[in-house]
Each structure stands twice: as C-alpha cells, then as structure tokens.
Amino acid sequence: MNRNLLLIVCLALMSAGALALLAHDADAAMSVTVTAKSPANQSVGAEPQCRLSVTITINNGPHATIQWYAEEGGVWVLKATHTNIHNGTHSVNATWFNDYGVKYYWRVVFVYTGGSSGACYEFTTHDLLVPQETKNEVTNLVVWSMVVVIIISVLGGIVIRLKQH
C-alpha cells in the first residue's frame, strides 16, 4: 500500500472521536471501544521514545490481543504484541520513535474471537530546543565576559595614561 493511501486511510479513521470497532462471531457481537489514547491524536510536542497507550473496553468478549505498529516508509511494521488483555489502559514504550520534530504514525490492532479491528493515530515530537535555563546561563556568561573585557580595557587605558604621566 503506498504511503499516501495509507495516510488517507489513517486520517479517515482518526476523524472519529471515540472509536467503536466491531466484529461479529457466531455467538455475539464483540467490540473493542477505544476511549482514550496517548499521546493525544494529532498532538504536537510529544517526547521522542514516548509511551503509547490506549484505554479500551472489550464488549461481549473475555479478552483480546493488541498489536502495536509503527509506520516506516509507507509500511506498517509490527513493534509489539500484548496477549490476553482485558478492559483498561495498555501501553508500550515506543523506543522506535527517536527523532525530534518528526510526525509519527502509529496503529493498534485488536485481535479477538471472530475477527480483528484497528485504528491509527499520529503525533509530532517536539523540536530539539535548548532549555531556557541553558539559554539564560549562556546569556549571563556572555554578558559577564563582556563586562570583564570592558573592565580590562578601562584598566588598561588607565595604566597607559599613568605611565605617560
């Protein structure tokens, strides 16, 4: 699947707020509802190697398997699998999202009796910025260095004048 089509499918899935994913088996309809995800979908400013999480409710079923994917070069790559999951929050450390200032796409797939369903999300990591404290320290260092240079220049001028007299 080419990257543009993959992204269009993801964007279509992302537009539904709380996503109800349904599948049918012979006994009853089983569904997984995603009620929260982190980082928030389409958020900006996430940390690289952040923790991905989803809060789910499994309806009409005992448990499911969750598969975590990352989009790499237009292809979904399986990164982790958690089996026998139940209602609640499930997460994985996304050590594969390493870079600053990059938009990342991730996907969760739920596999359960009678089928599977999934959803994809996106977030952007923050730019690599120098912390404000470091900027302040550098600014202070530059200012004090300039003060020292001025003092040395002034003292040097005084010494030269004294020698001339």
Helix-strand topology string? HEEEEEEEEEH
Q: Give me the oligomer status.
A: single chain
Alpha plus pi helix count: 2
Rg calc: 28 Å
Shape: rod-shaped
Characterise the protein shown here.
The protein is of the alpha+beta class and 165 residues long. It folds into 2 domains: 3-125, Immunoglobulin-like (Sandwich), CATH 2.60.40; 130-165. It has 2 helices and 9 strands, in the order αβββββββββα. It has helices at 3-14, 132-164, and strands at residues 19-24, 29-38, 43-46, 51-59, 64-72, 75-85, 88-93, 103-112, 115-125. β8 and β9 form a beta hairpin. The longest helix has 33 residues, at 132-164. Residues 5-27 have low confidence and may be disordered.
Set down the secondary structure blueprint:
Blueprint: H1 3-14, E1 19-24, E2 29-38, E3 43-46, E4 51-59, E5 64-72, E6 75-85, E7 88-93, E8 103-112, E9 115-125, H2 132-164
Parallel strand pairs: 3-9
Antiparallel strand pairs: 1-2, 2-4, 4-7, 5-6, 5-8, 8-9
Q: What is this entry, summarized?
A:
By secondary structure, the chain is of the alpha+beta class.
Key terms for this structure?
165 residues; alpha+beta; Immunoglobulin-like; 2 domains; 5-stranded mixed β-sheet; 2 helices; 27% helix
